[in-house]
Amino acid sequence: MKNIVLIGMPGAGKSTIGVVLAKTLKMPFIDTDILIQQKQNRLLQEIIEEDGIEEFLSIEEQVILDLDVWGSVISTGGSVVLESDGMRHLKENGFVVYLQLPYKEIEKRIRDITTRGIVMQKGQSLLQVYDERVPLYEKYADAMIRCMGKNMEQIIKELKELWEGIR
Fold it and tell me: Which residues are CB-contacts of 89 (< 8 A; sequence separation ≥ 6)?
């Protein structure tokens, strides 16, 4: 059985939705951001500040490449789409779903951009990050769920139906 891989912007709800989806489908849940923090024994923001963006992306990609699981719900960091080898690995073993939200909603959901562990170049705005990543999310996604205006139950129902349709 393949994995269900959730991608999307920080604040899109990948981790929250992933936990509930995993419970609903009786599947294990994996959050790659948590795996990175456990492996490094540091918060994402600390890794970015201390080691830089390129090193963080390298660490993130290695964590993804080391994943050897089947039949799991995997929540990824928003920056996962920036490393093609990692995404190739996720797609080989999974069904990738882009949790899509408009920029204004992402902006509302992200309270403090400086502590969130978001991969951003110095001087780059959240809107610029959004504009850079959306085409990549769309490129790698096998399916997209438009999350705006939907509650958790509606999103989970759509994901469950998608999953049942490909099994």
Answer: 64, 65, 67
Tell me whether residue 14 is annotated as binding.
Answer: yes
| Tens-place pLDDT, residues 23-66 | 999 999 999 999 999 999 999 989 998 999 999 999 999 999 99
- CATH architecture, domain defined by 3-157: 3-Layer(aba) Sandwich (3.40)
Q: Please tell me whether 11 is known to bind a ligand.
A: yes
The domain locations on the chain are 3-157
> According to the annotation, is 13 in a ligand binding site?
yes
> What are the structure tokens assigned to 116, written together?
């969130």
The pTM assigned to this predicted structure is 0.94
Is residue 72 part of an annotated ligand binding site?
Answer: no
16 assigned ligand-binding residue: yes
Residue 84 labelled as part of a binding site:
no
The owner of tokens 């959050």 is 31
